[in-house]
Design brief:
The protein has 161 residues and is an alpha+beta fold. The protein has four helices and six strands; from the N terminus they run βββαβααββα. Helix 1 packs parallel to helix 4.
Length: 161
Amino acid sequence: MLPNINLTRLNGETEQMHDYLGKVLLIVNVASHCGFTSQYTGLQSLYTQFQDRGLEVLGFPCNQFGGQEPGTAAEIEQFCSTSYQVNFPLFEKTDVNGSATHPLFEYLKHGAPGFLGTEAIKWNFTKFLVDRKGQVIRRYGSADTPASIANDIENALQNAE
């Protein structure tokens, strides 16, 4: 079951993870200055394609990998909307590893450990697919393109319809 965790959007609005119960979620740690930043295009495409069927893409900027998300909340929001026309929810900068790991990422990493059972996230644009009941279905690495996840999203949406 998806824990009820407090979230804060880049614009300062607060919400709860429970607000997303009943949705299929693709949760991603993102960065504006990463070799994988162009994946914003594919993430937005998935959001556009599947949102009306219950998909939410949730982006969590993270500056833990090579300092690739140095901007302020306003700068991140401006970059994503201007450069990639992102309109899926983006949240405040988040730690995904270490002692200050956000509770959502603790939950996700425990639900879908990485290679050889390690829970640490290795880089930006690691993606987690979560079903409508809040169970983590799968973790995808940075090199897994959003397009390559479309069939898994389709299956998750169909399994709950």
